Amino acid sequence: MASSNNDHDQVKSAGLFERLWGKIVKFGLMLKKLGQDDPRRIVHSLKVALAVTLVSMLFYFEPLYDGFGLAAMWAILTVVIVFEFTVGATIGRGLNRMMATLVAAALGIGAHRLATLSGKQGEPILIALFVFVEAGIVTFFRFIPQMKARYDFGLLVFNLTFCLISVSGYRDDEVIRMGFERTNTIIIGSCTAVAVCVFIRPVWIGVELHNQIATNMEKLANFLEGFGDEYFSVSENSQNRDKSSSLQGYKSVLTSKSSEDTMANLARWEPGHGRFRFRHPWKQYLKVGTLTRQCAFKIEALNNYLTSETQTPQDVKSIIQGPSVVISSECGKALKELATSMRKMTKSPSKDPHIAKSKDAAEELKTVIRSSLCKHQDDSLDIIKDGAVALLLFEIITCTEKISEAAHKLASQAHFKDVKPRVTPVQENSGNDGPHHVITIEG
Amino acid sequence: MASSNNDHDQVKSAGLFERLWGKIVKFGLMLKKLGQDDPRRIVHSLKVALAVTLVSMLFYFEPLYDGFGLAAMWAILTVVIVFEFTVGATIGRGLNRMMATLVAAALGIGAHRLATLSGKQGEPILIALFVFVEAGIVTFFRFIPQMKARYDFGLLVFNLTFCLISVSGYRDDEVIRMGFERTNTIIIGSCTAVAVCVFIRPVWIGVELHNQIATNMEKLANFLEGFGDEYFSVSENSQNRDKSSSLQGYKSVLTSKSSEDTMANLARWEPGHGRFRFRHPWKQYLKVGTLTRQCAFKIEALNNYLTSETQTPQDVKSIIQGPSVVISSECGKALKELATSMRKMTKSPSKDPHIAKSKDAAEELKTVIRSSLCKHQDDSLDIIKDGAVALLLFEIITCTEKISEAAHKLASQAHFKDVKPRVTPVQENSGNDGPHHVITIEG
Fold first, then answer.
1. Chain A: nearest CA to B132, how far in angstroms?
2. I want to staple A52 with a disulfide (CB 3.0 to 4.6 A). Which of A302, B7, B81, B135 is the partner?
3. CB distance A258–B254 less than 8 Å?
């Protein structure tokens, strides 16, 4: 009995060890996947490590340390706090921290001076009053939406520095030296963070936003290109839900608003880089994003009919099949081309042939509905469902057209490149500028 | 000419002054509105000011200051950084900061000790190596989604403290005292912030989430209750867009996902309070929220028909009017009652009479569609539009039912109160417990 108990314990502890080991392996695999999914994460971690190590040199080298002393720790603190994944976020935090520290340190020193005028008795009371009033006002300012969007961190740092300087001044008479030290070390820390972030494999949040908007269009395009085949080939009792799962990528577009807003806010901090200028039209990106999301709402409604358990009979579906497939796939192609030219930062031709084709198909579909849909002998409810799919497709054309207009406006505001079609020089025209006619489409 | 120029300048400067004054007035009014919209903002600002002033006492009183010295500044820093609007956010940050500082300080001291073993030459190299490795690993950990959701701030503080302690140790031999000071002052700061946040007019983020979910249901209910009248009374060329603007409140529900996720994450930090226990089923709130949002997507589609410029002729609309109005308003009532009982934290009766009524109306509507819709002599396209509205109403019934089920599950998981209907004592039954039958519905 005792031996069996012992065995049992051994098995138990072996099981415990194995489970623990399993968890560690799982954690390791998860970390590996995180790194593989986006190797820039590893680069970012190394960049932060580098920046912190650089700044900690202030402690190791005698001449540097003599200048700052223990205040050098503010530089380390600043690097850790300011360094973010993207350039926009890092510059935003860095500028906020530097400006806020500068202004708050000056005001803090002023408050300290003012308080000392009132003698040793009144000084702590006056300082406490200043701190109370300043903290209350600045905290309230953080509720102002425009402030919150861009200067929230700055207000926090302002609050912090003002309190720190004015209160420490009561004990440390060298309050001005302290204000300077804090400001200088914070500037060193912020600049180190920003420099490492910008000059070593930078991740521009503007580019991220640019790509996300294009990716979202592609997600819608994938659904629309696949919808026709899926919907009209689905028989009444097939496992259509599984089959259509490859089309469900558009779902993430439904809830992308807040991430796009944040990105646009941070992108405004970024200097010009590559073909993104300083005043790139980020607001127009948000407009394209909003229209894309509205289109995603229509697709969500369309997807309902695709994944519904009670499918319309095939013979009712077939009434609208021809033009519907054309509309869906042409809108998909239009969106895909818009996304492609956005990625390449080129202007796409303003007259989109795909939208024109889908409009023609829509006219055809309207005729079909008027002429034959209601005359069919099937269940009226099925006919209505069929018609509802058609109506949604009409709406998707409108949406696609709106997206296309907004994307064109964006292309011109952002000075995307013109793409001239490849023209082979024709003999008759080759008088003056013949050879120049050979223009290849730039990638 | 000169005089006219002078006049012009005067007018200009007066204009400048007036414009400046106008801006100041506008800013003041905006601040006033911010305070009036949510007076808790003013209370919060005063609370932060109070907490900072309390902690700054560490500097003013001799005995307190003798214990901490300038390290007391960490307490001020901590209060400003930790104090957030809601209890959940404040406790989350406070715990993160305290735990991370404790662990990182211990490890930092250990790293310093280990480095000193290698002599004065090797020490800075070893410390730099430790800092590099630690910063890299911890920064990478911040990418783990589960970590990011709850412990992001803790990882930041860990990074900060470890670097600070191990690096400063190179210059300041009293590294252990420094570690203790930092830990102690940060604990004082965190506890002050949490105490002021919890004990003076606390804002519980759990309650905020609870109310937002109920408000969102009410927004949908408002649309549905108003839809019937609006849609069927809108004639083809009235300014229907303006009229329906009062129904557009549901739009905010479409994009509420990220704010709900954040709130649920922070609510898990909150201790039990009032009728919210520590392990309140926050995840179930998110489920109700998701279903509400899905219903909002249907309503968005319905709203399209309401605000469309090309309205279906009145005589086509009138075919489906009767049952449609019933479905819409009964679903609206069902949602409104769910929202009300959620606000009161009571269990609503599991058999919802409004959903039953709307289902009956749906059967009626199906019969109408089958029997007469397609036999109408109007434009088939209008008939299809009419039918599409009916289909959306059917989907809204399904959605409402799902929301109702999820809300009931929430009510039982969260131990909402039972509401027994008011029963007047009947003579025949009044033997043993007659008087107890008089139960009033608790508010």
1. 5
2. B135
3. no
